[in-house]
Amino acid sequence: MKTEILKALRESKDYISGQQLCEQFGVSRTAVWKAIRKLEEEGYVIEAVRNKGYRLIDYPEKISQEELGSLMNTQWAGKSVKFYDEVDSTNTTAKQLAEEGAIHGTLVVADKQNSGRGRRGRTWESPSGTGIWMSVILKPDIIPANASMLTLVMALSVLKACREVTGLEGEIKWPNDLVIHKKKVCGILTEMSAQIDYINHIVVGVGINVNTDYFPEVISKMATSLKLEGNQSYNRARLIVKVMECFETYYDKFMETEDMSLLQDEYDSHLINLNQEVKVTQQEGEYFGVSEGITSRGELIIRQQDGTKVLVYAGEVSVRGLYGYV
C-alpha cells in the first residue's frame, strides 16, 4: 500500500485527494491516512491541505522497497524488487530466490553486504548508506555459452545510467569494471546455474561506489566513487532505477541476436582497453599485446607482438597505467 500511494504522489503534478486515493486503491480513508503517516515517519515530507488532499514535497536519500517500487517504470527489469537492510551477498540471496521460483527480472538490493564478492573470490567492501549493492535474476532462453556476454551488457547499462544521472564520463575495462579517471567505481559479477544445454537462471551482480567519502590507503590508488569524482552526493535509488531502465533496453537488443553484434560498436567506443598495451594473465601464464576491441561474442581481441591475434574469453586483462600496472 505504501509503495502504491508513494508512486501516486510522485506522479501527481498537483494535490491528490484522500478520496481519490481510496477509490484508486480500493481502501478506506483510515488506511490511506496510516500509509501517509508511515511514509512521513520514514522521512518523506507530505503536505496535507484540507479540501485539496496530499502532495509530496520532499523525500529522503534512502533505498527502500517503497522508494524503489514507486520510482520503477520498466516493463520487466526490476518490476519485482526484494530489498534487504543487510545480506551476506546480493548474488547469494538472488540465487536462492531464483531457485525458489523468483521471476525473470527480479531485482535484489541491499543497503549493506557482509560478504560482498568480486571476480575470482575477491572481497568487495559494501558498507551501508554509501553504495549500490544489487543483483538481477535473469532466465533467458539462450544457450549457456552466451551467458557471459551479459556482463558486458550490464557494463554498458551502468555506464550510461551513471552518465545520465551524474554527468560523469566513465569507461569500461573489459570485461567487468567501470572506471573514472583510471580508478574503479563499479564491478560486475555474473553467475549461472545451468544444465548442459539449458540455463536455469543467471544472476548479474553490480557493486557501485556511489557516496563513499574515502577508501583505505591500500586501495585508494585504484578505487573511487561517484561522489569523489563529482564532488556531490547522488540519489542511489534513482541511479538503481536508471540502471534497470538502461539494462532493459540493452538486454532486449542483446536478445535480438543473442550476442554483442548490435552493441559491439558502442561497447568499443567506451573501452579503456581499446588500442592500449595490455597484460593478459591466464592459468597457462601471461603475455602482452595490444587490445583491438571485442568480437560479436564479447571476446577481447589481442594483437601480440609478432602480429598474431588472440581472442581472450576469460582471465585478467591489465591496462598499462591502470590499477597500478606499469
Automatic annotation (TrEMBL):
Sections of the chain in a coiled coil: none
Recorded family membership: Belongs to the biotin--protein ligase family.
A GO CC annotation given for this chain: cytoplasm
InterPro entries tied to this protein: aa-tRNA-synth_II/BPL/LPL, Bifunct_BirA, Biotin_CoA_COase_ligase, BPL_C, BPL_LPL_catalytic, HTH_11, Transcriptional_repressor_C, Tscrpt_reg_HTH_GntR
EC number: 6.3.4.15
Gene Ontology terms describing biological process: protein lipoylation
Root EC class: ligase
DNA-binding region: 18-37
Catalytic activity entry: biotin + L-lysyl-[protein] + ATP = N(6)-biotinyl-L-lysyl-[protein] + AMP + diphosphate + H(+)
Keywords annotated in UniProt: ATP-binding, Biotin, DNA-binding, Ligase, Nucleotide-binding, Repressor, Transcription, Transcription regulation
UniProt protein name: Bifunctional ligase/repressor BirA
Binding site for biotin: 89-91, 113, 117-119, 184
Function noted in UniProt: Acts both as a biotin--[acetyl-CoA-carboxylase] ligase and a repressor.
Segments forming domain BPL/LPL catalytic: 65-255
GO MF term (any one): ATP binding
SUPFAM superfamilies xref list: C-terminal domain of transcriptional repressors, Class II aaRS and biotin synthetases, Winged helix' DNA-binding domain
